[in-house]
Design goal:
224 residues, mainly alpha, 85% helix, elongated
């Protein structure tokens, strides 16, 4: 059972990396630049940050898939369908990340072209198109990211590998995030405060796994 405790701690470290990388990407590297009013000039001026955020996002997506692979043998003991569904959603999430990254690079290339040739009127049209493209890819990526996270917490709830208060809080937090992102897509954002619970639980979960691991007695009873 010590190996399962170790697996839980490894999972916690990986999830903490995903959480921290998400904060760095959207709060420091991309968000203040790509969603600013002067993104056409600021994106080119901060090209290293944008490229770095893309690379970090790719690594984060890969780590999410690794988490699914690490947890797959354990989750299969409780529900094989959901275990593979979680893995599939992590793959889908990685695809969404790559699509979003393509739109980010498109904004960077447009910014470079704009800075080098501000007199080109056609660039003003592209500005709106590229900005809207990134809006759609970004929010659909955030929406898709809710699915693997929901299955993760639901699996923890069914398996009792974690205290149920953590699993229930996680499920509610994901639902709130899904509602807010879906509302934003339709142009009727409710409140960004609806994203606070998911931020809190996504920070609590890794630290719990790192310091407490998973409930080994549950796994033992399942094997017996």
């Amino acid at each position: 059972m010590n190996s399962n405790k170790k697996t839980g701690r490894i999972t916690g470290v990986l999830l903490l990396f995903v959480f921290i990388s998400g904060i760095i990407i959207f709060q420091f590297l991309q968000g203040p630049i790509l969603f600013s009013d002067n993104f056409l000039t600021s994106t080119s001026e901060n090209s290293n940050k944008i490229i770095g955020s893309v690379v970090l996002g790719i690594f984060s997506g890969i780590v999410s898939i690794v988490v699914a692979i690490v947890l797959l043998p354990i989750f299969k003991k409780h529900n094989m369908l959901l275990a593979y569904l979680y893995f599939a959603f992590c793959i889908l999430n990685f695809i969404a990340i790559m699509i979003d990254n393509v739109s980010v690079i498109s904004m960077l290339e447009l910014s470079k072209e704009y800075v080098g040739n501000e007199s080109n009127n056609s660039l003003n049209i592209l500005e709106t198109l590229i900005y809207k493209k990134h809006f759609w890819t970004h929010y659909f990526y955030l929406l898709i990211s809710c699915f693997p996270v929901f299955v993760l917490y639901y699996m923890f709830f069914l398996s009792k590998l974690l205290p149920r208060i953590i699993s229930i809080f996680g499920i509610i937090a994901v639902i709130l995030m899904f509602i807010e992102e879906l509302s934003s897509i339709f142009g009727h954002s409710i409140s960004m405060n609806m994203l606070l619970p998911i931020g809190i639980i996504q920070l609590i979960l890794p630290f719990w796994l790192i310091f407490k691991g998973m409930n080994s007695s549950t796994l033992k009873n399942k094997i017996i």
